[in-house]
Amino acid sequence: MATGEYNAAHIMFGKLGEGQFGVVFKLATGGHVYALKKLKEVSHIDGKRLEDEVQTLTRCTDHPNIAKVITTWIDADINIQMEYCNLGTLNDYVIKNRPGERTLNCFMLDMARGIRHLHTQRIIHRDVKPSNVLLVARPHHIPICKITDAGLARLTFPFSDLASISPTYYMSTGLCTPLYVAPDVFSGHYSTASDIFSLGVVFYAIHSMQTFHVKNKTFLYPVLPQSNGMFHCAREGEIKRAVTMHVFNAQKADLVSSMLELQLWSRPGADTVESTIRSLQMVTRRHGSCTLV
């Protein structure tokens, strides 16, 4: 990891966001605009482990659906300079724009491709949720989704303690993490299947458009319509009913339901998720491009 003094040529603008991993600022340097993530609450982390993890993160971001890490350095903080995604988070975009079916399908494909890439690199994201998906505008095309914060959850948050932390804490800090967590995580088991479950909840969230307001901020709030319960503690029948209530395409509903299987070994892999969404795209592909490359 690069270390050194703060570069005076860097010009920081306003804060773009704040989450469990740190604060993100808009940064101008060398005639370009980037996002600068300053990590916090990492004093408990071994420096060598942090260096190894961030280097892994840097290597895995060479993909169109992963927010690219440009460089890292340490001064008073741990700094990660990243690609600037000018449309903000998936959470904010879908709430503001209420995108239609074709756009949602394109977003799903982007996310599936990003998660599949991480999994092929043997990286489990661990915190897949709408605020960790960023969007970039493309003239005359649907925006492209990019996964961010891949792997940082393992570094900076004690997920082993997740079951003992009140959901009120997450909502008051804007994290909403328990809404997207797989049931296997609460037993201390993290795997690529855990990411698939979380991605399935994200897919449900962008279709159901259930929201929750806290501290002048609106979040997607995917819960079971009848019980107002979270997916990780629901029954399979209740999950399937909720999915079919909001996801009208039968093939897509079957995919999302399979991703939300409570038994981790019953969930599809990221490659299957991607290929299934690609097959859905064949119907609308003639109407405009998404991110197929």
Total beta strand runs: 10
What is the terminal-to-terminal distance? 32 Å
- Compute the number of structural domains: 2
CATH superfamily of the largest domain: Transferase(Phosphotransferase) domain 1
The outline comes out as: globular
In short:
The protein has nine helices and ten strands. It is α+β, with helices and mostly antiparallel strands and 293 residues long.
Core attributes:
2 domains; about 290 residues; alpha+beta; Transferase(Phosphotransferase), domain 1; six-stranded mixed beta sheet; two-stranded antiparallel ribbon; Phosphorylase Kinase, domain 1; disordered N terminus; 10 strands
Written description of the protein model:
The chain is an alpha+beta fold and 293 residues long. It folds into 2 domains: 82 residues, 2-Layer Sandwich (Phosphorylase Kinase, domain 1), CATH 3.30.200.20; 198 residues, Transferase(Phosphotransferase), domain 1. The chain has 9 helices and 10 strands. The strands form 3 sheets. A 6-stranded mixed beta sheet has the order 1-5-6-4-3-2, with helices on one face. A two-stranded antiparallel sheet has the order 7-8. Strands 9-10 form a two-stranded antiparallel sheet. The N terminus is likely disordered.
How would you summarize the topology of this molecule?
Layout lengths: L1 E2 L7 E9 L2 E8 L2 E8 L7 H14 L8 E6 L3 E6 L6 H8 L3 H20 L12 E6 L2 E7 L4 H5 L10 H7 L18 H17 L2 E4 L2 E4 L15 H11 L3 H10 L10 H15 L9
Parallel strand pairs: 1-5
Antiparallel strand pairs: 2-3, 3-4, 4-6, 5-6, 7-8, 9-10
